[in-house]
Structure formats: C-alpha cells, structure tokens
Design goal:
about 325 residues; alpha+beta; two-stranded antiparallel sheet; 7 helices; 9 strands; globular
C-alpha cells in the first residue's frame, strides 16, 4: 500500500513538473536541457519505485510459501503453492475454466486430506469473472449418495445460494430442530432415509457448532467443505478451525457411515451407490434466468420499441 501511494505521488509530481516545463518552453526556448534532465529524473524515480514494489511483492510471496512449507513439513503434509485443477467430484471443481488450486496442503500418509484455496474463471473478455474459494477435501471410506448442505450464512441477496451449482427444490429435505435455520439439505429423491441415516442429531449439532459458515458436500467417497472467501493461509486460527472440522464433523461422518450400504445395490462389499443416488439433479440458477430475460429484452424489445417510436414520429 505504501509503495503504491509512493508511485502515485511520483506520478503526480512528474505531471506537475512537465506542465511547468512546457509553460517555460513557451517563453524561453533554452530550457530544453532542463526538460531532458527532468524526464531522466522522473523516469528513473518511477522505475526505481516500481522495481521496489515488485521486489517487495516477490519477497512477501516467497516468505508466505516458506512459512507454509515449514508448517506442512512439521505436520506430515506437503505444501503446493500452485497446481492444476484437482480431479475432485465436488460442485466447485467442475465450474468455469482456467482452474487451479492455490496455497494448499495435503496429507502424505494415512487418510487423505487436502485443504487450501481454489480459483476458476467464468466468461471471457469484458464478461470474464474470477471466482476464489477456500476448500477442504476429506476422503471417506464408504461411497455415499450425493448430498449438499447449503449454508444459509453465506447466501446472497434474497437467500440465493452462492454455490456454482443449483439443485432442484424437490430434493430439499427438512431436518429436526433448528438445523434448517443454518443449512438447506439436498439429497436425491427416494434417498431421504439414507440422508437421515447419515445426518443424526449428533452430526447435525457438530455441523452447526463447527461448520455453519461453510457449505458442505458429500459425494462418492468424499466430504468437501467450501468457503465463499479464500482462506488466509498464514493465520494459525484458519488451520486450527479446518483441522477441528476434520476432527469433529469429519470423524463423526466416518463413524456414522462406516457400515452404510445402498440397499438398492444389495452388496456391501461392492461399496457402490445406485445411479439414481450418485448425483443430485440440477436446475438453471435464478440469476441465469434473470440475465437471460434482460438479454432478451435488450435484443428484441428495445429495438421494437425504438422502431415504433420512430414510426410515430413520422
């Protein structure tokens, strides 16, 4: 911030200097050497400041990577500052393009755990948008039906979900107590009993206490936790909270589902979910519908009204 402010100050002074010199030229053609000297000083100062900014940025980035790598090594994990899109089945990992994981840590032994930040891009040109998420991926033992807990705490205007995927409303399952005040649970139709088998009162209480600000998705053999904002990975409290979710919500999910078997498959050892329960049915998001209507109005209605007004003017 300080360096940026310095660049702005130097730029303003440079503009003022050039303006003054140009006025002097109007009265005395012999000030050209002064112009040359002034330009050299100005350009040199700007280059020096910009170079300092880049050096500071690079130093900050390398320092962050070093600290995260040291933390990962001390905790039996491996740190990756930037990687290609992870091949996870979660909702955010199939959205957009130019996908990449950032500043994430993953386990090297035992149960697989991966957490950090994730980025993808939608649109192109002037309509391009970059989306940044924080995520946690925990591998489970049993294949489970596709279920999504959409946190109400991070929804947008009018309660619109922040998730990149929208699911059909007939798949919403209401649970007991005040759980519905914190999450909207989606499960495939005809899998309501399976969802109740997984989301016991104990697990619901842990979710409210430890993961209420986050969206949670269970799909195949994975449990994902999504943050609408990237994690600040240098904050110890972030790691403590995420690992606490693993130790509470993750551990309870594992014990609760260790004997789960889809009765439609009728084969525990197969460890499979019937096709109907593997993925939730999606719908077109309300935002996309609204944009489509506005585009239609812009392309068809507006030209028509303009033409009619022109005819009346004749």
């Amino acid at each position: 911030m300080l360096i940026t402010f310095t660049v702005v100050i130097f730029g303003a002074l440079g503009i003022a200097f050039l303006s003054l010199v140009m006025r002097m030229i109007q009265y005395d053609g012999r000030v050209l050497p002064a112009v040359a000297v002034g330009l050299v000083i100005l350009v040199g100062a700007v280059i020096a400041v910009v170079a300092a900014k880049f050096r500071a940025s690079a130093r900050s980035r390398w320092e962050r990577w070093y600290r995260l790598d040291s933390f990962a090594s001390a905790n039996g994990m491996v740190f990756s500052p930037r990687g290609s899109a992870p091949q996870y089945p979660g909702a955010i990992f199939s959205a957009g393009h130019s996908r990449q994981s950032l500043d994430h840590l993953r386990s090297t032994s035992g149960r697989f755990l991966d957490y950090g930040n994730y980025r993808y891009v939608t649109g192109s040109g002037k309509n391009k948008s970059t989306h940044n998420w924080g995520f946690l991926a925990l591998q489970l033992d049993r294949s489970l039906p596709h279920m999504v807990l959409d946190s109400r705490a991070n929804n947008g205007l009018f309660g619109v979900s922040n998730l990149p995927a929208a699911f059909r409303k007939e798949q919403v399952l209401s649970l007991e107590g005040d759980f519905n005040n914190h999450f909207t649970l989606y499960c495939p139709q005809a899998y309501e009993r399976d969802a109740l088998y997984v989301f016991t009162p104990d697990l619901m209480a842990l979710l409210i206490d430890n993961a209420a600000p986050f969206d949670v998705e269970i799909v195949d053999k994975w449990m994902f936790v999504y943050s609408a904002k990237p994690f600040v990975m240098l904050k110890p409290a972030v790691h403590q909270r995420l690992l606490s979710i693993v130790d509470t919500v993750g551990a309870k999910t594992l014990t609760q589902t260790d004997r789960y078997s889809d009765e439609r498959v009728q084969n525990f050892t197969a460890n499979l979910v019937a096709p109907h329960g593997q993925r939730l049915k999606r719908r077109v998001p309300i935002v996309s519908i609204a944009i489509g209507i506005l585009v239609a109005v812009g392309f068809f209605v507006f030209p028509l009204v303009t033409a009619l007004l022109a005819v009346e003017g004749l």
